[in-house]
Write a structure and sequence with these properties.
The chain is α/β, with parallel strands linked by helices. Helices cover about 40% and strands about 20% of the residues. The strands form two sheets. The protein has a six-stranded mixed β-sheet, sandwiched between helices. A six-stranded parallel β-sheet has the order 9-8-7-10-11-12, with helices on both faces. A hairpin with a 2-residue loop joins strand 5 (about 95-100) and strand 6. Bound molecules: nicotinamide-adenine-dinucleotide (NAD).
């Protein structure tokens, strides 16, 4: 790293709190070094009451951009000059690009999810997706899936504090994209079974299966799965979840959340550099 950094090296940040646990600095710096880009990516502990000043710093320091994570994803947009269509529809930003002082906010979580499907030769365009979740990850996936042309998006969620967000996501998808979305209460298990029965792909985009909800599943038992259904988890720690173990017992093809994580980073890398991450190299490093 010390050999790589010169007076010309430009800074890219990651602004969130807490953030010291993040794998993104290692991932992005490895990719910059591999392709010879003169950027350095550093994590900064920036909380909600500091994000406005941090955006000013992006301008002042002429940084190339930044990633943004919790609690800033839904706050930072108001301080930027422009939002991508997906970021505007999600009401969230995870990547900022600084083009000579003009800051554009993007959300790459959904792009990463769709790219991970493509990387696994899974093509959901024009088909039916049933997805559980209405939080940050789920909303980004649902909006991007609709923008990319997934035909039908059936959303399930608990009637908790995320429910209203799901109502709004469905309304945006139905009025602003060619996709059709509906929302059901996750407590309606008969409906869940019915919708899963003719879906091409089923996605768990909640934290269920991940610590502290490890060992739990949004799908009660394996009678909900059938051989042809593709079953995807957004959680990636642990890599195996109770839900995907059941799906595998039925013979379903499954995918964990690691691909989404890698490809959301690749999409941000591409926004800053104009070139995708060296994906095969990154997969080797991650494994
Ligand atoms: P969030 O807090 O914004 O949303 C939580 C969601 O989980 C909501 O829909 C909520 O209703 C649901 N939920 C919570 N507890 C539940 C329960 N007991 N039963 C049913 N539903 C429940 O969280 P988020 O940021 O959207 O993250 C969700 C998961 O996705 C986390 O595990 C996170 O680590 C993972 N994630 C993965 C990636 C990736 O790149 N693979 C990216 C972002 C998030």
């Amino acid at each position: 790293m010390s050999e790589r950094i010169t007076g010309h090296t430009e800074l890219i940040g990651l602004m969130a709190y807490p953030i010291r646990h993040s794998g993104s600095p290692a991932m992005q710096n490895e990719a910059f070094a591999k392709l010879g880009y003169d950027y350095a990516y550093l994590a900064f502990e920036v909380g909600a009451d500091e994000i406005e000043d941090a955006v000013k710093a992006i301008r002042t320091l002429k940084m190339r951009g930044s990633n943004v994570s919790m609690p800033n994803k839904t706050l930072v947009g108001q301080y930027l000059d422009e939002l991508s269509p997906a970021a505007e529809m999600c009401g969230a930003v995870n990547t900022i690009v600084n083009d000579h002082g003009h800051l554009t906010g993007h959300i790459t979580d959904g792009i990463g999810f769709m790219a991970a499907l493509k990387d696994n030769n899974i093509d959901a365009i024009g088909k039916k997706m049933t997805i559980v979740g209405a939080g940050g990850a789920a909303t980004a996936i649902e909006i991007q899936a609709a923008l990319d042309g997934v035909g039908e998006i059936v959303i399930f969620n608990r009637k908790d504090e995320f429910w209203d967000r799901a109502v709004s996501t469905v309304e945006k998808i139905n009025t602003r994209t060619s996709s059709h979305a509906v929302l059901y209460d996750l407590a309606d298990l008969d409906q869940l079974k019915k919708e899963m029965a003719d879906s091409y792909i089923f996605v768990n985009a909640t934290g269920v299966g991940m610590k502290p909800l490890e060992g739990q599943s949004v799908v009660p038992d394996k009678s909900y799965f059938r051989l042809e259904l593709i079953v995807v988890d957004v959680p990636y720690s642990p890599l195996e979840t109770a839900m995907r173990s059941m799906a595998k017992e039925v013979g379903c093809r499954t995918m964990n959340g690691l691909g989404m994580m890698l490809f959301q980073g690749s999409a941000a890398f591409e926004l800053w550099t104009g070139e995708p991450m060296p994906i095969e190299h990154m997969k080797e490093i991650l494994n």
